[in-house]
Amino acid sequence: MARYRKRPVEIEAVQLRWTQWNEVCELLGDALTAENSDGAWEIPAAEASDTCGEEGPNYIALNVRTTHGEIAIVRHGDWIVPENEPGRFYPVKPDIFAATYEAVARDSAATEATELEKTARVFAGLHRSAEADVTRVIDLYEQWVKAGPPPLGTPLSRWWDARLVELHDAIRPDA
User: What ranges do the domains of the chain cover?
Assistant: First the structure.
């Protein structure tokens, strides 16, 4: 009989536990609220898959939708693994996860390069946004110069209030 070896595959996963709640929320995204309209719920230690060394008395559970469209309960200590289909996940019990997967060592230089690239993209986006703001303010200034001083008889406070509103709208066009 022929023998087979499971191919090494890298996956993303996060363990459901209080100390990793932010990572759970990031992984699940909108699926968290879509499948848990009343939110995640607390469970006693007896119902948790693993306490993960966290002090009780309450642990956490939530629902995820699987590839087959079924709702699966993920209990404290279970691992959440995303499927290829967006918004679909499957829970893996901690002992099965430990027997099936091992942590992938990250190259610190590659991780640092990735972080620098992300930071550069954020700064580039901020720069483009600031440039657009400055351009709108300069255009507004040129309109004001072209329009000249306030017309005679116009209360100065109203005129300045209108200019401030225009300036606000130029800086925050979506507000």
Answer: 14-100, 108-171
